[in-house]
Amino acid sequence: MSLFGGRGRRDVFGRVREGNADAVERVKDWTRARFGLGTEDTILVVELEGSLPGFPARETLVAFWGADERRHHFKVFKAVDQVAEADVPPAWLKESLAQTGGMECLCC
Questions:
Q1: Distance CA 49, CA 47 (A)
Q2: What residues form DSSP beta bridges with 63?
Q3: DSSP element (H, E) containing 25
C-alpha cells in the first residue's frame, strides 16, 4: 500500500508495499490527464484491502482536489497495479465525483 507513490514510502497505516510506486504514478498521471488537473492540484492514490464480503480483496481509492478545495473521489475494485486507464471515469463524470455537503469522506 502506498500513500503518495514513493518507493518504500509508508501508507497511512505505517505499512510499506514495494513495487507499487510505478502503478500509483500511472494512475495519478491518467487522473490528471482525464480531469484536466494541473501540477499544483493534489491527487491521492491508495490501495486498500477490501473489507466487505463479496467484494474484491484489493481496491484502489483515488481522490483529487485543487485550489478551490472541492474534493472528488472514485474507487476501482482492483489492486493498484491492475488498474488500467479505461478504469478511470470519463471526464464528463467529474462533477458527480465531487463530495457533497454533509457527506463524510473516509479518504481525506
A1: 7
A2: 44, 73
A3: helix 21-34
- Report helix, strand or coil for 59: strand
Distance of CA 76 to the CA centre of its chain: 8
Number of domains in the chain: 1
Instruction: Tell me what the mean pLDDT of segment 16-35 comes to.
Output: 87
Give the structural domain span for 49.
Answer: 21-97
Percent share of the chain, pLDDT over 90? 57
Record the pTM.
0.75
Cell numbers at 28, concatenated? 495519478
In a domain, 8, yes or no: no
Binning pLDDT at 50, 70 and 90, where does residue 69 land? confident
> Does residue 82 belong to any structural domain of this protein?
yes
| Alpha-helical regions (H) of 10-105 | 21-34
